[in-house]
Amino acid sequence: MSDTEVEIDDPAAFGRSDAEALAKRAVARDPQAWGTIFELHYRGVFAFVRYRLRGADEAEDIASHVFEIAFANAARFDYRGVPIEGWLIGIARNVVRDHIKKLGRRGYTAEPDETNELSEPDSASGVDLHHDLTAAMRGLTDDQRECVSHRFVLDRSVAETALLMNRSEDAVKNLQRRALAAMHRALASVDYPQGGST
Amino acid sequence: MSKDRINQLLDEALRSGFVPSGASVAERAEIEQLLAAAERARVLKSALDAESRAALPTARARFERYVAAEAAAPAQRKALRPPQSNFLGRAFAMHRRLALVGSAAAIGLVALVAVFVTQSYGGVATASAQVLSENDYAQVQGVITATSGEGADRTATLASDFGDLQIALGDLASVTNVDQLVDASTLRPGDTVTVAGTVAKKDKTTSIAARTLAILKANANPPARPKVTLLRELHNGLEGRITVFAVAEDGKSARVLVDVGSAEQFVVVVNAKTLGELLNGGETAVGRRVMVSQESGSPKGIFSLTPVDAPPGQPRPVGRPVTNGAVAGLVLARDGNVLRVLTDRGPVQVVVTLQTRIAIGPEAGLTADRFRSGNLAIGHTVIIQGGVGRATGQLVADVIWVGAKPMR
């Protein structure tokens, strides 16, 4: 199966040998390979940066920038069983950190932009839940937030999350428990309908 | 209740959706709270999917343009290798704290060397180091002394006022002779040229990945190498012809080399306003005759340049037209990394890459980072120099000078 024929909405459909071949082509800066990588991993990178930044527009910009940096430094990617998404997330982590530092130096904060918080219409309680969930995500540590994104927003298994975060599965389970406990505490004062309202 | 026990119960509950039957009352209460939090966290998924789907087309188009622009600039890419960690940093890389000490020691060593270098300044090698730095955008005038290679691998040796430079004439380089585009193979030893591009340094060799190269005249002799001095204090009546123009990688500083005659040239660090004036007009800064002055309140060692006429009997000194890569106008829109700029010739699309130097004018009212990100560029006046990618036909910016928004 060629890279262009892969089910690009489903990174899991990409086998190890496919991923290795794709990574080798990526190192050679093959534009078609990078097109595939973009389709496979944009959502994951966007999810990683989304809850660290003020809004979707900023997340779109930073996520795009991550792929540009990755492409520019493709020759430095060393594929030894490390998923390319792990490398992209590593770049995203640095880009977000630098971005927030720069915002801080200019007197801005990375607090949510209220006008940019939601991308879809929702019921009143849904709006409140989204708002409070986003606030609750911001109250987590970086690792906890990353763990919640992988596990509950991107539906990744504990094993996949451990691989992408370069942690043991036990460490991921600990992070997940602490993150959910912190979210529960943050949301405990409000009584939302179970399952949200989207 | 041990943490491992709760982790195990939570793991099972997240997979099955139910609290395991073996859980105690207290364990059940805790797991139910964690499951409720997980269920709420999953609510974020639908919002994220919607946002991600909405962002994808624009982001994809931006990335495709970036890849196309990068593919069109292989020579530039070679010249812009990411900075390597320093020797002492690598030597101590086994321990982060020691690496920090190594870096500090390296900085100290560089500072110490700089003291000695500035005391004995004037040699060709040190002059070159002062005039051009790694990843500068530079315009340099000189005489071709040798050519080699073919096609995208064609190179030339340029004898300049401060030593020899290697010129890489890759796919993106456009060569002109009397304002007409010509093939790079027509370049001959003895040609006087003005070359513009990105500076790279390796070992003791300084090279420029050319964007534009203008052949000015043939059968010239290589220049003598004058004494080169960094201008720290203003000399009254200091004027001369610009032979080198360089903009730093971060766009925050620019230097020119001014030939004042009498076998002496000065490296002059110029302010942001002068940088905009040097980029403006669609002609190279190199070749212009200028007077050096200093604005009141300006930091020590930062100067302004004012155009002046040539001495009596000599032609008016001007730069060469940048025939294939200079625009000035107003930013109308931004789509990813492409700016749509309204010029007096109509709208022009300009690709901004990671390597584009963003120079902020004194009245722009924003920073380079803010110009790069978001839509804050819209409405600002800009002056741009770069090169047209053969593959895309789009202007890829080397330098963007950002001015104020026009008054309404």
What's the short version?
The complex is a heterodimer of chains A (198) and B (408). With 198 residues, chain A is mainly α. Chain A has eight helices and no strands.
Whole-number mean pLDDT of chain B: 77
Largest sheet of chain B: 5 strands, mixed, barrel
Query: Low-confidence parts of chain B lasting 5 or more residues at pLDDT below 50?
Result: 75-93, 112-125
As an assembly, this protein is heterodimer
Q: For the record, give the distance between the C-alpha atoms at the N and C termini of chain A, rounded to a whole number.
A: 37 Å
Q: Give the strand line-up of the largest sheet of chain B.
A: 1-2-3-7-6
Structural class of the secondary structure composition of chain B?
A: alpha+beta
Rg of chain B (C-alpha, Å): 28 Å
Number of extended strands of chain A: 0
Explain the overall architecture.
- The complex is a heterodimer of chains A (198) and B (408).
- Chain A has 198 residues and is an all-alpha fold.
- Chain A has helices spanning 16-27, 31-50, 56-72, 84-105, 124-138, 142-153, 158-165, 169-187.
- Chain A has eight helices and no strands.
- In chain A, helix 2 (31-50) crosses helix 4 (84-105), helix 3 packs across helix 4 and helix 7 (158-165) crosses helix 8.
- Chain B has 408 residues and is of the alpha+beta class.
- In chain B, the strands form two sheets. Chain B has a five-stranded mixed beta barrel with strand order 1-2-3-7-6. Chain B has a five-stranded mixed β-barrel with strand order 14-15-16-19-18.
- In chain B, a hairpin with a 6-residue loop joins strand 18 (381-388) and strand 19.
- In chain B, helix 1 packs across helix 2 (25-71).
- The relative contact order of chain B is 0.11.
- The model of chain B is unreliable at 75-93 and 112-125 (pLDDT under 50).
- Classes of the chains: A mainly alpha (198), B alpha+beta (408).
- Chains A and B meet through helix 2, helix 3, helix 5, helix 6 and helix 8 of A and helix 1 and helix 2 of B.
